[in-house]
Amino acid sequence: MEYTELGRSGLKVAKICLGTMTFGRQVSEADAHALMDHAVARGVDFLDTAEMYPVPPSAETHTHTESIIGRWLAARPGMRQRIVLASKVAGPVRGYQWIRNASPDLTGEDIIRACEDSLRRLQTDYLDLYQIHWPVRNVPMFGAIYFDPARDRPVSSIHEQLDALGRLVRDGKVRAIGLSNETPYGVAEFVRVAEQHGLPRIASVQNPYCLINRSVENGLDETMYRYGVSLLAYSPLGFGLLTGKYDDSGIEPQGGRAPGRMALFESMRKQRWGRPEALAAARRYNALAREHGMTPARMALAFCYTKWQVASTIIGVTNREQLDEDIDAWGTTLSPEVLAEIDRIRWEIRDPAQ
To answer: Which Pfam families match (predicted)?
Structure first.
């Protein structure tokens, strides 16, 4: 496995990261432990989680993923030193009434307490990377595309958020910090405030990036490049749409086959990945892959694995076969012909899962 530095942090991570948001709902604890063992054995020693996982989140299951990982670590002495472990603090409430009593803000003290709670669940003294899961300020995200100034409300400043993250770094509880679901403005402002006040610089941003959502290339990639911030690409398979498993029957639940995440959870079908336009676009990319002798998943992953914008690609799996397929796609090179056709399709349909 190849490794890369996250931003200017000095933290080296594998080019493939195992996402864990299925652990605790779609994946049992025993199976999750086996998947992590296998991933590490194959060189994927970078794990990403969050306090709100598993997804879709609920009052009954949130935080379970971190606890599953914590018990995995506790049962394997020495494993903590072998892996890079990342987690995230949830931003202001988005209908999740069980997180911080539905607070519309995320204060510095909230960040400190959330990190300490994550450390206890994960049964570790430190996190290699700690990220703000989504912006505290008003910003279009998770499928929204228009900024509405009328939605602005007083919230904790970026300075306060960075100050709290800086305390965690100084106390040795966090090695590097990052953001998630951010905008070009957010990246630039976090860097500016950090440099102005001598606070830790963000190392990375975790945003969606795949064939049906290349919105990173609409200005965020330049911002990250010029400020020395790395991209952690999530949903490289478009929530499963880019595997081809929904091509024939669609995303609604069907009998006779093992249901994917989109079919299992109605809340997922109501999000950007469930748009009819997203499935229609995925079908075109999947057909292109097959025309060139590849599985849809291999082409979609190779696209992310080889893009200059991507530092590490976060893969999410529910079984060992998927994990091996995702890792085996590493090293696949897409021909100029395929890349040109990918760009031609995007020119027509843009980013339907943005």
So the answer is: Aldo_ket_red
